[in-house]
Amino acid sequence: MTNKRAHVFYSGNVQGVGFRYTAEDIAESLGLKGWVKNLSDGRVEVVAEGDEKDLKEFLDKISNGQMARYIKDTEVSWEKATKEFDSFEVAF
């Protein structure tokens, strides 16, 4: 098991469409830890940690699932996991 951190920025029409709660549901179903939040510039930011395979599945489900039509651009940075999170939540 390779623990990693994905730091992701989604842009497009990603606020006000249930994006954060969809991301939270997917992350929780995969056992990921971290958070998702809206940014003042209209983007959504995600920090998720877990097994690399699960993180890739998370990114795939977001980019190709019901939220795909709202996403214009995705920026992903891969980092070392810090293991600072106990759960995955919507941050404000």
Helix and strand string, N-terminal first?
A: EHEEHEE
**Which CATH first-tier class would you pick?**
Alpha Beta
Strands side by side in the biggest sheet: 4-1-3-2-5
Strand content: 35-45%
Percent of residues in helices: 25-40%
Rg = 12 Å
Mean pLDDT: 97
Task: Jot down its keywords.
92 residues, alpha+beta, Alpha-Beta Plaits, five-stranded mixed beta sheet, 2 helices, 26% helix, globular
How would you summarize the topology of this molecule?
Layout: E1 3-12, H1 19-29, E2 33-38, E3 44-51, H2 52-64, E4 71-80, E5 88-90
Parallel strand pairs: 2-5
Antiparallel strand pairs: 1-3, 1-4, 2-3
Helix pairs in contact: 1-2
Structural notes for this entry:
Helices cover about 25% and strands about 40% of the residues. It has about 90 residues and is α+β, with helices and mostly antiparallel strands. The chain has one domain (about 5-90): Alpha-Beta Plaits (2-Layer Sandwich), CATH 3.30.70.100. A five-stranded mixed sheet has the order 4-1-3-2-5. α1 runs antiparallel to α2 (about 50-65).
Short description:
The protein has 92 residues and is α+β, with helices and mostly antiparallel strands. It has helices at residues 19-29, 52-64; strands at 3-12, 33-38, 44-51, 71-80, 88-90.
